[in-house]
Amino acid sequence: MSFRTSLVAVAVLTLTLGLTTAPAQAAYEYPFRDPALPLTQRIDDLLGRLTLAEKVSWLHQYQPAVDRLGIGLFKTGTEALHGVAWSTDIDNGGAVVTAEGTVFPQAVGLASTWDPDLIKRVGSAVGDEARGYHASNPRLWGLQLWAPVVNLLRDPRWGRNEEGYSEDPLLTGAISTAYGSGIQGDDPDHLRAAPVLKHFLANNNEVRRDTTSSSLRPRVLNEYDVPAFRTAIAADAATGVMTAYNRINGRPATVTDLNSSVGTWTDRPLFNVSDAGGPNNLTGSQAYYATQAEAAAAMIKAGVESFTVDDANGAPTVSSVNAALSQGLLTPADIDGAVRKILSIRFRLGEFDPDGGPYGKITKAAVNTPAHQKLARQTAAEAAVLLKNANKTLPLKPSKKVAVVGPLAKTLYTDWYSGKLPYRVTPLDGIKERAATVDTEGVDRIALKADGRYLTAGIGAGADLKLSATAAGATEQFDVFDWGQGIVTLRSVANGKYVSRANWSTLVNNQDQPTGWFVQEQFKLEAQADGTTLLRYAGYETAYDWFGPDTYVRAAADGTLSLTTAAGATRFTKETVRSGIDEAVVAAKSADVAVVVVGSMPFINGREDHDRTDTNLAAGQEALVEAVRKANPNTVVVLENSYPTTVDRLQEKVPAILWTTHAGAETGHALADILYGDVNPAGRLTQTWPRGGTTLPDILDYDIIKTGSTYLYGKDTPLYAFGHGLSYTTFGYQGLKAVAKGDGYEVSVRVTNTGSVAGDEVVQLYTHQQTSRVKQPVKQLRGFQRVHLAPGGSKVVRLSLRTADLALWDVTRGRFAVEPSTHDILVGSSSDRIRQRATVRVNGERIPDRDLTRVTRAADFDDYSGVELVDETKVRGDAVGGSAGEWIAFEDVDLGRGVTGLRAGVAATAASSVEVRLDSPTGRVVATVPVIATGGVYQWATATAPVSGAAGKHDLYLVFKGALRLKDLAFTR
């Protein structure tokens, strides 16, 4: 009997018996359909009705329908990083379908608002639109949303910088909590949609991202990477995590134990998922398990409930899980535990409520509403950061004629995780609504000629390019956009579309913008010594070495194109039809002020699977700005990208610079609102912008403490500091107080708008611990508040500081501890613009000297050189892996009257040894521990050695004399 039929039967029976004196009680075919029952009872009922086969099938991303219970397909994973983005269509061969809704600023832009209340509203809008799409097609648009990304922006070269929020864990936690809580809604029992945090854990490199290991010593893990994820989970602002591709201390994140970490941060059940393809990597690129059955068992036991793999085909997952069951690697109880967590979210989404729950009535009408468009405009304006404004160049006067120049002046780009723009307000559009304008993109228009014929494109939808025409008309002309490092895109004048290898054979002018996983719209124009030019295809698949050296364009006798080697390439004569710089100079001279819009192309300059190797603004774009500035000193640069960029020369020479992310359809309106003073800019940078020439550490080195990275530990003077951002007004700070209150301190400061226009100030609270057993941050963000003040207005800003917030991870005891110390209380408008200072004396606990007569984990070292953290076993535990000459150190070791022996847990594939030295890596040797070949890196043995001449207090150095692993050690007396 169907649910609907049962209701009809109850209604008929009620009328027949004449029972009309009291309201009818609805009857449900199954208790799990009854919303009046407790959630646990409903889950138990449904779980008991599912067969083991049905439960196993639900461990795949596409959880199939159970028709006999009236349950439809449930799909995990709609992308929603800054608006509903895309999903895959199981009913159409897995085709990717892109949403056409409200696109908000990229994630790093959302965080640049420093405004959690606003971001919660953005999350609410995204949740509504996810519901709207779900209502139109629930099989395509699932309600588990894969967002936000909370990986910390520790390295400005990370390809996915646009997807993250900040290099700071507190700010990242605040923004992710706001976005996630907005998506979920405020109902205590139901979810509007279910946000999932990406990518757990320490996922900041795209190079070899599925095989590299993020080596996280305990302080970095517990003080930096974990808090970014823990905040939203602990606030019940997220419903699970997605595991990352990388390894963490040697163990793939896909099988890193979530039950003992993420699962302990909340009382609510979580529904965790793997990243796409992650399960197969365990037996593939990572070669961590011999069989997929072992991999599946390890994932489920680690707390991963959904396998995102094999597209919509769940059969391999079912097969591997069933194999694990038959081999005794899993039990039915393990499956029940995973499915129970899945159901906890599906029930909260209202799927099994008769009316769909409190959010079940949201329809497609919720998508891209006028209110959401207005919110997008507000958010884009609040996110923009005024980097420089000399001599009050901004805001502009509406009466001034403006030259709008630059490769991003007349376009808006989307990125891999954005939806399709339903409309576009470009920077030029926004400015044209305010002032008389003249415009040019400032790019060269060229034609390429060989053997008396020009490279010719198609019109309309485009066509294969070929060497054809003898004169250079529109079909023979291409606009050249410079994206740096020699990479250009070619836009056909014939139809305004970009040249691409989209058909994997020849070249076609058929793309609206560079896009796709392999971004086949990239080329290089390589000048030759004889004055000719080679046209080189530079699409991303060349990075995979699929085509070897065949990346140069060759024209056959009939004019058709193919790829060949440089030696066989056609040598073109490049004719410049018009100079972009010359046009820009003419435009700039004809106007009162020039606005030059430069920046990045999100599919080219850095994105998923491709880190940046160069932080410079494209040379051609920088030359354009220089030429415009010389032609018109009243030049404003709008820098539109999503990561720190080397713009030292612009900072030196250009009077005003405004930064924005790729901020969606309302970008042009938001920029004009700021440029003309309708909005006073108050966005603040969420990561440090290094000066040109700054040496950055290896992108694979995750130890920000050792490398001195981010604003927390960096001591170089940056171009723009963390928290930097200017305003059209000025603010004064007075009367900083830090008063003990409850379990910490209340920090208060009066902030006054001392200028002539209203504006927002982002008040930032930092602390610095003056003395410590360990290296402390230069300063660390402890709180912030964005406040609005009218001219002359004043407000006392109060920020809470818990004593527990000042704790460090004590490696000697494996827990957080607050040391007794004086802390600087620093309040200002950025990390390098501290306006008021105070101190507080914190009474804590002295961290004791180390007692290495107790078994001590090797990973709990104080210092090291060269070693990395590795996996003790494939299930749990960290160890130290080292090679000859590398070492670890334990500081402040109290050896008392002396120790006589040493035991160490070791693993090695060949015989080696470890030297124990006093006070330096080259200090006196007090022991040499022989290490035998144990049979493998997971085969542990105990190595012993006598110790002589070791007494009193010392720093101890364990120097590796060969390749081995060390998991623990203990001295004996």
From TrEMBL:
Give UniProt keywords alphabetically: Hydrolase, Signal
PANTHER family documented for this protein: BETA-D-XYLOSIDASE 5-RELATED, SUGAR HYDROLASE-RELATED
**Record domain CBM6: where:** 853-972
Q: Which InterPro entries match?
A: Actin-crosslinking, BXL, CBM6, Cellulose-bd_IV, Fn3-like, Galactose-bd-like_sf, GH, Glyco_hydro_3_C
Q: Where is the signal peptide?
A: 1-26
Q: What role does it play?
A: Catalyzes the hydrolysis of a non-reducing terminal alpha-L-arabinopyranosidic linkage in ginsenoside Rb2 (alpha-L-arabinopyranosyl-(1->6)-alpha-D-glucopyranosyl) to release alpha-D-glucopyranosyl (Rd). It is not able to hydrolyze alpha-L-arabinofuranosyl-(1->6)-alpha-D-glucopyranosyl (Rc).
Question: What is the name of the protein in this document?
Answer: Exo-alpha-(1->6)-L-arabinopyranosidase
Family matches, as Gene3D superfamilies = 2.60.120.380, Galactose-binding domain-like, Glycoside hydrolase family 3 C-terminal domain, Glycoside hydrolase, family 3, N-terminal domain, Immunoglobulins
Q: Which GO terms describe its biological process?
A: arabinan catabolic process; xylan catabolic process
Organism of this sequence: Streptosporangium subroseum
Gene Ontology molecular-function annotations: alpha-L-arabinofuranosidase activity; beta-glucosidase activity; carbohydrate binding; xylan 1,4-beta-xylosidase activity
- In which family does this protein belong, per the annotation? Belongs to the glycosyl hydrolase 3 family.
What the entry lists under CDD domains is as follows: beta-trefoil_FSCN_BglX-like, CBM6_xylanase-like
